[in-house]
Amino acid sequence: MKIDPNTTLVVSTTASAAAPAAAPGWRGLHNRAASAVERLFHLDLLTLSSRVALAAIFFQSGRTKVEGGLTVSDNAIALFTDEYRLPLLPPEVGAHLAAYAEHLFPLLLVLGLGTRAAAAALLGMTLVIQVFVYPDAWPTHLSWATLAAVLLRFGGGAWSLDRVLRLR
Question: Membrane topology type, per the record (predicted)?
Fold first, then answer.
């Protein structure tokens, strides 16, 4: 044992202190189950599923705004004119920006390319939707924001082009 001069704690230097013995009873059972869950839901699986989930939400929304390939529909422009009414942005511009963003950023997320930037963009869109369009839909928007926050914090994970290209 040694005494850390910066604290009044006694720090053990033996190997047994680094790995405590398995706790008996319910605590041990809980800890073993928690370890199994951590192995099952590895961070790389969580980042991949977060990328795909967030991408699906916005890509499906983007598809409702276009006809054919990427031609913004009259219905999308009408939606931005009548229902969304974003401040400082003409409806035609808003409809086009949203439609293109809801196709580009989900594609980047699925590829895991520029994951943090794509997640930040979709988080920004989520905040705009929450504040200006559907303020009562905060539970849905909170789930979207949480997916984006996971990607902002951890990046694309091992199964991403970001990792292949050594991008953080």
Answer: Multi-pass membrane protein
Q: Which H helix or E strand runs over 10?
A: strand 10-11
Domain ranges of the chain: 2-39, 43-164
Q: Is the dihedral of CA 139, 141, 143, 145 positive or negative?
A: negative
| CA dist., res. 165 & res. 44, Å (int) | 16
Q: How far is CA 155 from CA 60, 124, 158, in A?
A: 23, 17, 9
Q: What is the mean pLDDT of the chain?
A: 91
* Helices and strands per DSSP (H, E), number in the chain: 8, 4
62-111 pLDDT, tens digit per residue, is 999 999 999 999 999 999 999 999 999 999 999 999 999 999 999 999 99
